[in-house]
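Data availability (excerpt). The following record was deposited with the supplementary files.
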Amino acid sequence: MAKKTIHFHLGPHKTGSTAIQRALRENAAVLSADFGLTNIKSPLIPKAAKFLNSDRTQDAVVALESVADLCADADGDCIISCEDFSGSIPGARGKRKLYPNLWTNLEVLENVFASYDRRYYFFLRQPAEWARSAYVQNLKHRQKFSRFDDFANFLNMDELWDDVISIPLRKLGKSFVIVEYPSATKQTAMRSLLAAIPGCAGKDLQTIVETTANQTANDKDIAVMEAINRSSATHEAKRRAKLSLFEPNDKRVPVAMSATSVWLETPDRPTDLPKALMPLWKRVEKRVATQDQPNLMPDLDVDLRSLRHRIVDADGDLPEISRGKMVNQAEILTFRFRGQTEVCFLLGLVISYLRRNTPHTQHAATLFQRLWKEEYKVLLGLLPTRWLISSFQTFLDHGINEHQKVIGSGAYFYANMLKAYEAERAFESMPPDAVYPDKMPKTKMGFAGLDRFKLGGSDLILNTNALLLELSAKDQVAGRVVCEFLARAKASKSIFSRMDKSRQAHGIDIKQFSNCWSFFDEP
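Predicted structure:
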């Protein structure tokens, strides 16, 4: 009696694998009736591949043995599709060599399924096309690369695919089947696979209902993802921003047609204002300028979602023009946001209007609230930190409730004092991540009444960070901008990392302050 044959479709990645897996599911009845093939579908299959590619061989074996039992109970020969059996997608885990685990993984499959006949199917795709597709996959799910050339240069692509398949071909012979990838359309990948399986080639493949491949990113979305990878946002913010590019339209937030801004009018000068602050008060009186500017903003009901897919294009150098006119400011912002999505540009334009007292304040305030309500994922994954700080001031000046104003004021002063302090260190040529040489301050405070504290002997920084986080919870729209800033601060080299790193280096553990790390979490 002939042995049952297990047909393994190995991929590799970006050769229509996902479409093939979907087609196998959708054509299960036809495959069984007309081709004598049972599609084996189980969550144990990708789990086993993950174990294999994480060097957890024994866990992989246990999972694969259960899959082998499913094959034993199935009618006829079986087909299993999993591109991760080839290995992790190139570019993952910092590996330069393409699919270095391929033969190791095949050895495990050979041993576990030894009681069956085994055939493995590996698609070959034109190298340049495949590399481009693999790069886009990396853009979607990873943050290491933001230029295709860097990705291609990182990988060892010499003699692709010969170097990848040489060992399997030598060890397995005709059991390792090379399938030419159909370059004309991904919709023929399923039929190309079946045509390579013995006993299927002579049958009517037109009975197979093809399925289209997953939606691929267009050039504009690729450019946005590249910009996201280059940004200073946190890992989580970048991940969410990319996912938002491919959200279905039915997830759109309903448009809020109006937002009332109570403009922060300059208060009367206090009668008991100290004389030393009189010059500074003159600046207070000039902070808000009343101007008659044209309205360059889009309509209130503009489809903001469409802007996340459009890239700002600007050539040349920064325009040497005055920012006094909004037409000029828009031109400057176009240069500043070049290469980013138009959502970011619009936020910059709206904030620029809200720095002035114009007839368009309510219009700008409405768009500002809509942007941070509807497009926050893209904004948090793309915006330079300076524009988060600008948003804090805008929430302070134009918040639609007192919570937004309080959050904006707290975050604005927190961020600017942090910026000023880090700037001072840079002027003094002090490294941003240096360990403090001493545990105690060595100089007198230049500000009488500001108490000094010894390293690791204060909860001042922790309490400041915790209080700002607490404030952020009072309004979701303004609060999540603050949360992203705090997360960036935690990940950066600054006073927070220096305090914690220096405390660790000096082995300081004062009982009263043992858990008073900058973010309540020992780094």
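Summary of structural features: Residues 395 and 446 are 33 Å apart (CA to CA).
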